[in-house]
Amino acid sequence: EKALDFPNSIYGFSKKAQQDLSLILGKLYNIPTVVLRGFNIYGPRQSLSNPYTGVTAIFISRFKNNKEAVVFEDGLQTRDFVSVHDVVNAFILSLEKDKANFELFNIGSGKGTTILEVAETLSKLLRKSGNIRVSKDFRKNDIRHCFANINKAEKFLGWKPKVTLEEGFKELIEGSE
Question: What is the helix (H) or strand (E) element at residue 104, kind and residue range?
Answer without folding.
Answer: strand 103-107
